[in-house]
Every structure is written in structure tokens, then in C-alpha cells.
Amino acid sequence: MKSHFDAVIVGGGPAGSYLAYNLSKDGFKVILIDNKPLSHLWDKPCGAIASPLILNYLDRMGINRDIAIEEKYNYVKVFNRNMNEIAEVKLPLIKVNRQEVGKELANELCNVGVKIIDKKMGVKLKVRDDIVSAVILNNGENICGRLIIDATGFTGILRHQLRGKIPEWLIDKEDLVIAVIEDNSERRRLFETFSLIIDKGIVPGGYAWYTPLEDRTIIGIGLQPVIPNIMLSKRLLYIKKLIGIRGKILGRSIGVIYARRALASFVYNGYAMVGDAGAQGNPLLGGGILGAFIGANIAYEQIKKALEESKGENLMISDLWGYNIEFMKKRGRLLAILDIIRLFTQALSNEDLIRFARQLPQEITFKLDDIVKIGMETLGTIIKARIFWKMIDVIKAIQRIQILFDKYPNSPEKIFEWTKEVNSIFSEFKKDIYKRK
Ligand SMILES: Cc1cc2nc3c(=O)[nH]c(=O)nc-3n(C[C@H](O)[C@H](O)[C@H](O)COP(=O)(O)OP(=O)(O)OC[C@H]3O[C@@H](n4cnc5c(N)ncnc54)[C@H](O)[C@@H]3O)c2cc1C
I need a surface site. Which of 3, 9, 21, 60 has the fewest CB within 10 A? Predict the structure, then answer.
């Protein structure tokens, strides 16, 4: 049977909407399914702090920058639990107005011919003879396509059905961050820019953040769900007391973020994942909007090529493998290295974490060369400190990861073996850094 759609995209967040917009603009038949109403396409619990680089992706979809930017920041401040400033880093950031972007985007998607089904949930994949050929909605409707694209974000509801067929269909709890966000009517002058508070007692394995807006503030905390006594609300209250904020609570929301390297593969016969669904965000910051766009852009180029070149009805794993290869080259390696740094910071004692933060350079980019340079410079300045040996573990793990990413499989056959090797580097690394107290 011939599919009516070239691409069936489930999830209309940054990743899904970018892919839908661009494929449709190129003349492919695209359908986008989201469980929210179309007028709330991008609404979700999200701090919405992102690099201004995301504006390039929004420009491409015709979104006006004035609508997208709610606030601009030029640097980030880091505080300890006594509210002493321990670092100030030059890093341009914007607060994105997700609600307004979503509304504007809904129009743009319709303008380029994307068919949209809103308020419906994709609940199941239809898999026959090891090929995904459709997504089944919660009203029982089957939507068939040459490719089903999973852009459902963190939930993994569709990916879980490919258990055993793809590596890493299940994510370890230690690789998650659970976050609560509060919109508060007060603004404290002490925090004139986007600020982080790090303290392992208050936010173990994570951080609290403060986003000053014109006449209000967004406060958030994110921490690992594996810790005992998670007590998110109590911790948030503690942070609020610490920074002395007593305004009216305008809204509160809770969500989950993947804080780990990207999955080892994003494709199967008739199926591809993009954005958070493939854990393509930055593991160190839990920031996924830029990561979702970068992943979606790589996916777009490769899926477009596969749709044009493949003679078969459904795109097979071999047709889609180029997406994995390109992603791992351009982004996957960097995310794996940032994941090593994330685990390293989580393993530090509070005292060492503060010491490490004090050594942060005045300017940060997330380019691979810069990260290695920062690491080496930091190592140089803390050579006498006890984190020295942990840093050596970090460098060794980074070297091993670099070698393994150079050998990313050229075809699907060896992917399970490769994933096992990556995972064993990570487990050894975790064991090593927790051993060094
Ligand atoms: C509390 C919190 C704070 C965050 N703060 C930041 C931040 O400050 N900066 C940053 O860059 N990132 C932040 N993130 C992460 C960011 O929100 C995501 O990384 C980003 O939105 C990923 O985009 P996406 O398109 O992959 O997924 P999402 O934006 O999650 O979009 C997925 C879409 O799919 C829909 N959907 C899900 N399941 C189904 C289904 N079965 N059927 C139909 N539709 C479905 C959802 O409704 C949603 O519209 C935060 C996340 C959380 C939870």
C-alpha cells in the first residue's frame, strides 16, 4: 500500500516543527501530530534560556526575532549557598518566548503546507516484518508514512516499543534531571543577569537558576531524581528564602530533562528520532532547544536525501544511517565529552565543585577545541588540588571516547557492539571518579 505521507512527525516542539517546516517547504508530504492544541504548540515546562544561535533556526522558519526574544543576557553569574559570587562568565544568552514562537510557528507550518493534527497522542508504532509503517493515535486512527519521526521529547513512549531492536531504548535514571520552575512576580536587583546557584546540599547533582525578566523572575531547580528525599518544593522554597524573593507565585511547572550523551543510534526501518527523543541536548546544562535544532537540521538534510534517493516505500535503516554518521561527527562526540564533564562535576565534593567553578574562564563557548583548552588550563591552575587525579580520569576518558567516535560504525550491523564499548567507558569512568574521594 502506498503511504499518503512522506514524513509523519509526532511532536511539534523545536525539533519536530523545524523538521516539518523544512521538509514540507521542499515539497514533501508532511503531517505533524501533537497532543496539545495548535495555539499552544511550544508550551511546556521550560526555562527557555538558550544561545542566540537558535535565532538562525527561527529565522529560517520565518519567525520574527522580536517575538522570539523575551530578554537578552551577556554573561552568567555563579553563586554559592552564602550568595557570594564565585564566577562571572561572558556567555550571550536569550530568554525565548516559547508561547509566542509556538503561535507564530503554527501559522508558518500551515503556510508551507504541513498537515496538522493537534490534541491527539501518538500511542503506538505499527511494526510489521521489522518495519515501522504507521503511528497509531489515541483515537485509534493509523497514520501511515514512508518515515515515522519521533520528536516526542523526553517521554520515549514510541521508542520504548522498539525494545531490543535499537540500542538504548531505555534511559538510566541517573541520566535524568527533574526540574521545577516557578514564575514569580518579584525581581531582585542583586541578580541583574541570568544566574546559577550551585550547592550540593541544596541541589545535589544539579543547580538552581534565576532568570530576571522585566518585572518578574523565573526561578528553577533541577536535580537528579535518584537522590533520596527529592522534596522539590521544599528545596525551591529554600532557594527562594536564600535569594530573598517573596513575590506572588504566577505559575509553577515540573518536567524532566535528559542529562546525558545522545543515544547511540536514532534510526530503524521506517523510524527516526530527533531532538530530546534522541537525547540530543547538552548534558551539562540540560539545555535542549539549541540541541534540538542542531539535531533536527542534521536529520533534515539526511532524511531529505534518503526520501529523494530511496526507491522503496519505507525508508530502511540503511537509507537513514547517514543521519547517525553525520550527527556523531558533528555533534555526538561533543555531547559525549560534555557528559564526561557532567559526571565529573557531579562526583565532586561541594568544596571542590566551588573551587572548580572559581577556575572557570571569563568566556565560554561550547566548541570542542575550546572545551579541551579550558580543561587543560583549569588543570594547570589546580595542579596541587585533590581534584587533580579526577581530572586525569576525565582526560583519559575523553581520549578513549574520541577514539571510539572516530570508529562509529559505517553501517548498522556493529551498532550494538559499539554502544557496549561506549557504555563500558562511561561505567569505568564513573567507578574511577567516585573511587577518588
Ligand atoms: C523544567 C525544564 C526546564 C528546561 N529549561 C531549558 C532551558 O532553560 N533551556 C533549554 O534550552 N532547554 C531547556 N529545557 C529542555 C527543552 O525544553 C527541551 O530540550 C526542548 O524543548 C527539546 O525540544 P524537542 O522538540 O526535542 O521536544 P519538546 O519541546 O519536548 O517537544 C515535544 C512535543 O511532543 C509532544 N508530544 C509528546 N509526546 C507525544 C505523543 N505521544 N503524541 C503527540 N505529541 C506528543 C509534546 O506535547 C511536545 O509538544 C528544559 C526542560 C525542562 C523540562
Answer: 60
